[in-house]
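User: Hey, my collaborator sent me this sequence without any context and asked if I could get a structure. I don't really work with proteins. Can you help?
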Amino acid sequence: MLGPIDRRALLAGAGASLLAGGTARAQENWPQGRQVKLVVPFTAGGATDVLGRLVADKLGQTWGSGLIVENRPGAGSNIGIEAVAKAAPTGDTLLIASVGLATNRYLYAKVNYDPVKDLAPITMVALVPNLLVVRNDLPVKSVAELVAYAKANPGKLTYASSGVGTSLHLAGELFQKLTGAKMVHVPYRGSAQAIQDLMGGRVDLIFDNITSALPHAKAGTIRPLGVSTLKRAPTAPDYPPIAETIPGFDVSSWFALFAPAKTPQAIVQKVYQDTKAGLADPTMRAKMDALAAGPGGWTPEELGKFLQAELKKWGDLIQEAGIKAE
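Assistant: No problem. I've predicted the 3D structure and written it out in structure-token form, which is a compact way to encode the shape of the chain:
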């Protein structure tokens, strides 16, 4: 006969087994009956928002339930990222983040989250190259000629960006670090006005997102010199990688999915697998190609390693250059 303690132990064990079984079934059936939210830490209309909504629409179709997109802009994406980092790890709150996830801890005096400890990587959505373009009357027609001109005219060239700490800004800083050239940074509130000033000859060059720079380059209003990624961009194969002239030069505007840390692995894997399948869909691929967005679909482990590498690369550069967010 079981004693009181044995009965209690048996009942506790049975209860734990039922709870575990219920949790496992809930994870297996996720997201049925649940409202999932994708947080975009920027305003509507930008690249992160556009890509986030494409993914949300595709996942909503796959899951047979709507996936709400919530824009939570502010503080260079810190407000939205922090909201997800502190959300319950149930799979109900997801994040689409960009390079700020790797740079903000070095740019801002205080960031209330740890990009590695507080978030679980899911998958890369897309990588978008930057395109180095110069004003038409600048007397350079290649990356090598630009390097030579910049060195011969220290501090005279101006390079525009869409703001302090953006991939456009950091590309210029990396260019200077790897070549020894000295240029003057001119930050804008977005790249649209920067491109207008480049065409007007008020600034000399910009490492703009290829999506926005390519139409102007093809129209001949600005001169393209090269792409910022190690390989040629499929949407712009005529432009050589800057790294062919400047070894080690590799910059992408990237966009990836994350969840709060401790989100069950079964849920992380489901979002990863469904996103990967969605990105491979021909209709989805055509939409991504139109944005010059390179394919993602990386495993959570691959994304985690990439984030660590980005933290190291940009953290060192930001600290060396003494860059601080406005």
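In plain terms: The chain has eleven helices and ten strands. You can pass these tokens on to your collaborator as they are.
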